[in-house]
Structures are given as C-alpha cells and as structure tokens.
Amino acid sequence: MCIRDRTTAVAVQEEDNEPKWSQELPNLVLLFCIYFTQGLCFGFWDSTLPVLLTERKFSFNDLAVLSIQVYPFSFKYLIAPIIDSFYSNTLGKRKSYIVPFQCLFGIVQILVAFQWNQLLENKQILLLTISGFLSYLFMAVQGIATDGWIVTLLHEKNLSLAATIKRVSQTLGILISYNVLILLGKLTMNGYQIINPKDALYAFGGFSIFIGALIMIFKREVPPKEEKKENVFQVFRHLLQFFRRRQLFLIIAFLLLRNLGFGFTDAGLSAILIRNGMPKEKITEIETYHLPFDILIGFIVGAYTVSYTHLR
C-alpha cells in the first residue's frame, strides 16, 4: 500500500512538473515564425514565380531550368551531418545556423526585389534560378537546425505539437506568398497595385531578417546534455547505416509512386492552363479551396498524436 502511494505521488509530482501548453507558447510562436518563413519561400519561388513567368511568355525550357531551385531540399540528408559536426559553442549548436541563414535568406529576397523589373524584362532565368536555389538552400539549412532544436526547445510531452505548428505555419506562409499575392495582385489604387511581387519580396526579406535578429538577441539556446561529439565522417557512417534499413526503401518507393500520379499536375498543369487562356487568378482561386482543409487536418492529426502515445 505504501509503495503504491509513493509511486502515485511520484507520478503526480512528475505530472505537475510537466509544462502546460500555454507555458510553452513563446517557443511555439518562435517555431511558427521560423516555419512561416519557410512557407514564404515555398509559396513564392515554387508557385508564384512560375505563374508570373508563364504569364510573361517564358518558355517551358525556362520553367524546367527554374525547377532546379528546389534540389537543396532533396539533399538535406547530406547537409545534416555537417551541421551536427561544425558549430559555435558560444552561439549555440542550432542558432549557429538558424540565425545566419535566416538573415541570408532575407538578404537574397531584398536583392531580387531590387532587380525585379530588370530580371523579368531581360528574361534572366539563370539569375532567377540561382536566387531561388540559394533561397531553398538557406531554408534547408535553417530547417535542419530547427528540426534538431525542437528536441531541446519543447518538453518531451509536447514534441508532437511541433509537427502541427510546422504544417500549419508553412501552409499559412504559402497562402500569403502565393494565393494572397496572386489574388490581390490585380487590385489597384490610383493606378498602382496594392500588392505586387516586388514589394512582397521586400516584405519577406525584412520579416526574415527581423526574426533572425530577435532569435539572436532574445532567445538563449539551452546547451544539450553532455554528448560525445563525432566528426563529420563518423556522422556520415551512421547515415549510411540508416540508409540500409528496409523500411526506408519502402517509404521511398511509396513517395516515388505517389509522385508518378501527381507530378504532372504539380509541375506543369498551371503553366499549360495559363498558356491556353485561363487567368492565373482563377487557377489560384481553385487551389485556395483546399488550404483550409490542410490547416484543419494539421490541427486534428496533431491533437490526436498528443493523446495517442503510440504515434509519438
């Protein structure tokens, strides 16, 4: 009886020590801002820019060249070992990459905005592709560091909330940088566009740099528990062992089969419809209808994984 009471008391004490959702709200807001920046990148460079280039009669070859920009996210597994091996102890393991690459992304957006009209008028697809590639590269590095930071940033019981925040914030970022930008881009006041891509890029860049500065000044990174620091070659060796798992190949096969079915509609359908006379606003309006369901499903799945421990 005493043992049972003591065990119960310890369990209650541990439960009381667990932070509530509201107590971790500042960290959740921080994650929201970081992942929202990623959504701004995805929405503008992968959706808005191809639509604008198609409308300006860029060729399909140009759009194919532009698609190279997303490749950094396909090779995050090669970047991650470097991030785990080289960092500043003074700044923090994760902040060493989140802060500078968050700011670098903002700088690229501002530079592109500064030369926006010239890039489109002269059809500088190579410079646009390089700018998009750098934007995705900086967001890939920032995303890897952020995903690793979550482990120490949130309490173990609240880790499942991170996936919900990531999904919702990225979707909202895409909504702002693609759907809202295209749909409201036709609105004018005194002959001037209320929202245009050039001003949007200035805003995205300023927001990214602002968030990076706030993290640098006000957010202190808690040092991880003592762990054996491995060099980059040892990390790559562990990575190769991970790729030998059968479950990983099953996931890769599933994703490849999925992309066979949706690859064309994701990549080329919008461009073909615009070339055949459908207004870009109408296409964007149709694509906007599913976004509320994306956000709602993210909340539902996140709430379910919090209560259902087998999915943690």
N-C termini distance:
33 Å
Lateral strand order in the biggest sheet: 1-2
Poorly predicted sequence stretches spanning 5 or more consecutive residues: 1-16
Strand content: under 5%
Structural class: mainly alpha
Helix content range of the residues, please?
over 70%
Q: Indicate the radius of gyration in whole angstroms.
A: 22 Å
Give the overall shape.
globular
Can you give the mean pLDDT? Answer: 81
Order of helices and strands: HHHHHHHHEEHHHHHH
Q: Can you count the beta strands?
A: 2
Largest sheet: 2 strands, antiparallel
Total of helices:
14
Could you describe the 3D structure shown?
It is a single chain. With 312 residues, the protein is mainly alpha-helical. 75% of the residues lie in helices and 1% in strands. It has 14 helices and two strands.
Concise account of the structure shown:
The chain has 312 residues and is mainly α. Strands 1-2 form a two-stranded antiparallel sheet. The model is unreliable at 1-16 (pLDDT under 50).
